[in-house]
Amino acid sequence: MADVGKTNTLKIVKITEIGAYLDGAESGEILLPTRYLPESAEEGQDLQAFIYYDSKDRLVATTEIPKAQLDDFAYLKVVQVNKMGAFLDWGLPKDLLVPYNQQKNRMVVGKSYLVKLYRDHHTDRIAASSKLDKYLDIWPARYEIGEQVELIIATKTDLGFKAIVNNQHWGLLYDNEVFQHLRTGQRLNGFIKNVRDDGRIDLILTRGGLGKIKDFAPSLMEYLNAHKGYCSLHDKSSPDEIKRVFGVSKKTFKSTIGNLLKQGKIELLDSGFRLKDKK
């Protein structure tokens, strides 16, 4: 049976003037219109295709890759609002519906929202919801301190940034520990700082201690190689300037400089520092 809302690997049963029919097993044969059919396609060949319902509620296939698939979280733009709800651009000809009862706040054309893609069991269609709370924190938070996790930035709060952790939980990045620009929908790696007794999760974008230095050192060396081996920042530079250039705290910057000095990779100058083999 074809997995609706996902990319499937299906066999080409036959090729006709209007396209290729793919074997959807219990779902029956699914049309892949000619405009999506690779020139090299042959009957009997396996083909990767995304399966969804078209505007006439027929299962259809496409080789185009949507911006999100079933069960994904995605930051998508509203392109239309009508009596059914809001419609999001997810990269396919038929826009993605967010019914009014699935909108946390009334959606507006031209704005983007973080949503969860789900399958409506009444209509069998793929739809989206901005009521994210009902999809998160359902599972117990079992993380180790320092564990690396995948994050999706959600919203800005008075304390910092709410983020989705491993597609399962809410977590929080505190303002005073964020040294780079973050935006809603951004995906990046982070680390578990703490799991509280109430299950709430504190996050951080860099590892603590020596791990933080090891994470930043390659970026600093890359910067030096791209700037003729020289950097004008030093221990008297302001934290804001260091944050603007490197996206790290002054403490991490100074610790990394000290570590690279011990390794003999850089040398200090009155105006900054440089790679030791650069003159």
From TrEMBL:
This is GntR family transcriptional regulator. Gene3D superfamilies: Nucleic acid-binding proteins, Winged helix-like DNA-binding domain superfamily/Winged helix DNA-binding domain. Belongs to the CvfB family. Residues 220-275 form the Conserved virulence factor B-like winged helix domain. Residues 4-63 form the Conserved virulence factor B first S1 domain. InterPro entries: CvfB_fam, CvfB_S1_st, CvfB_WH, NA-bd_OB-fold, WH-like_DNA-bd_sf. It comes from Thalassotalea mangrovi. PANTHER family: CONSERVED VIRULENCE FACTOR B.
